Amino acid sequence: MIARLRGTLLEKGAEDAVIDVQGVGYRVNLSTISLGKLPADGQPVDVRIRTVVREDAFELFGFLSVPEEELFLLLNSVSRIGPRMALGVLSGMEVPELIAALARGEVARLAKIHGVGKKTAERLVLELKDKVKNIHTEAVARGTAPVAPTTSGTKSDLISALLNLGYKQPQAEKAADVASERLGPDATFQALFRDALKVLRSGP
Questions:
Q1: How far is the C-alpha of 102 from the C-alpha of 127, rounded, in Å?
Q2: How confident is residue 137, by pLDDT bands cut at 50, 70 and 90?
Q3: Which of 96, 132, 154, 202 has its CA 20 to 30 Å from the CA of residue 66?
Q4: Which CATH superfamily is domain 66-134 in?
Q5: Are the CB atoms for 147 and 134 separated by under 8 Å?
Q6: pLDDT digit string (tens) for 23-76?
């Protein structure tokens, strides 16, 4: 099984990226947040990989850190949570925030993640509240994991993610402003990112 890919970033989209390793292009599914942190096309990348094999598919799921990969495995262990759903949950919050939300049983906050809802959020908390405490991130270890991202920080991350997809600074800033205004201060990064892409694809 493939455990790690180190190569050159060929291209990236809203849900995945293609990494060239010695002439072979690997399509890797990543969270929205991780995609936003990737460098520009043509730059070197190093991604941890989990391979999921089914009768009808052979998929690669990528992670930029050990805690992100560990959290993916825990999410995927929850009943009725498949690998794509697990990646969707990771797209809703930064890893330290997600760990903190699960550990504190913040069902309402988790339910706001796209595709989750109250019942799934309750199941995530029930099954992972104690388990996530074993995942060590620098922020969690220091006891400084943020309860919620600041609006300005989320907007900056959103603009950065759009720039990494190849959009120009004015386009990215305008789309981020529109998405933030439409969805409000409580919107998750994933929801803002999706809405900003809709704005950009709808044209001027």
A1: 9
A2: low
A3: 154
A4: 5' to 3' exonuclease, C-terminal subdomain (1.10.150.20)
A5: no
A6: 999 999 999 999 988 998 999 999 999 998 877 778 999 999 999 999 999 999
CA–CA separation, 31 and 161 (whole Å)? 12
Are 36 and 193 contacting, i.e. CB atoms less than 8 angstroms apart?
yes
CA distances from 23 to 18, 44, 118 (A): 12, 14, 45
Domain ranges of the chain: 4-63, 66-134, 155-202
CB 66 within 8 A of CB 49: no
Higher local confidence (pLDDT), 139 or 169: 169
Q: How many residues does the chain have?
A: 204
203 or 34: which carries more pLDDT confidence? 34
44 sits in which H/E element: strand 44-54
